[in-house]
Design a protein that fits this description.
By secondary structure, the chain is α+β, with helices and mostly antiparallel strands. Helices cover about 25% and strands about 35% of the residues. Strands 7, 8, 9, 10, 11, 12, 13, 14, 15 and 16 form a 10-stranded antiparallel sheet that branches.
Length: about 450
Amino acid sequence: MDHRNKMIGRDRKIFTFLASLLVTLLVPQVLHAQDDRLDEEWQSDTRRSVVIDFRVNSATVERAYHDNAVMLERIDSIFTAIKNDSLIEIVSVEFCGTASPEGNSVVNSRLSHGRMKALEDVVRDHIDIPDSIVTHNDHYIAWHHLVEMIEADEKLPSRDRVIEIIHTDYPEAKDWAGKPMDGRLPKLQALGSNVWNYLLHNYFVHMRNAWFIVVTHRNKAVEPQPEPIPEPVPEPEPVVEPEPEPEPTPEPMAEEKPRVPLMSIKNNLLEDAALVVNFGAEFRITKRLSFDVMGHYSPYDYFTDVRKIRVFAIQPEVRYWWGESLVKGHFIGLHAPIAGFNVQLNDKYRYQDPNHAIWGLGVSYGYAMPLGKKGNWGIEFTIGVGYMDIKYDVYEGVTNGRYLRTETRNYIGPTRLGIDISYRIDMGKKQKKQKELEE
């Protein structure tokens, strides 16, 4: 369908050029005094396009991501120009969606289709488009676009071999989970981590998008009828009026920038399931750094007063993000758990901290992602290991049991595990302006 449209467009351009040349040779020069739009009886088709970028594994149109804000404003300008010109007719509108190739075929197909539909919903909110002129293309990997980018980049290792692999039609392969994926991917990964990481960070990020192309045509202008010549009327005496003062030029409005995350509050679902009350907050330091602190409290006795897990702990952590802090991406953290406890799990012994908290030090890894269209809600997965210097007193396992001994233990193992639901609080305009001045 695309090839056919291109052929029709090319033939129409040739015809228009020859017709214009013939009219120029035959029509008298007096026609040059007419309106400019009457000189151009037919114009060539005009193609206008808008491209929207998406985050990895997302089909949500985010205004603040990459150049999306500019592109979304361009939608308004395109259709405003069409509405304001009565001679322009929309011939066709094509919506397309793509995905980067590193995932399996099922996920990539779903993402490319979802991105195409998300952009179509945005466009159709601006103008009523007949279904008869709309076409869809959710071919999920734009390999030809990848080749164009690679051919313009001489820094890519094994560039000729990469281009050869992309042009080759390999049988379908399977990923580590047994799901189908494009047969080119194992060949590209086999070229080594340097090549694969270069493709991942320099090219694949530009292949997660959706776009639409609108083709318009200028119709033939209607030649105005000559107006009757009115009777001459004596001209009145001219009245000299003072020249109006020029109006002051309004200052251009500053473009609104994306809101900056200030902090997030969170709750660990795993601890909720264990009936441990918990609450946390994370504060943005820079785009890559944040400070997180979690509090945990368990005041319960279980069934009897000699069955208990009473814990009060806090766990501050400094994090470094590969994405944007508090918003999305992978991160690593350095945390220091501090806890007090009074625990009894059987009838023999009760264990209690010796009137001061135990402490430790650990490292953690996690990944966070936004939930919903606005992105204020999010989910975070975290796991951590570390060392704890544990010193505790042992008592008899009865009510007001007597003291038996004090023990110490050097613990190495898990120190953090969480599935956190968070709510992000963005920086207000006044705070944001102050922060920009400080930076």
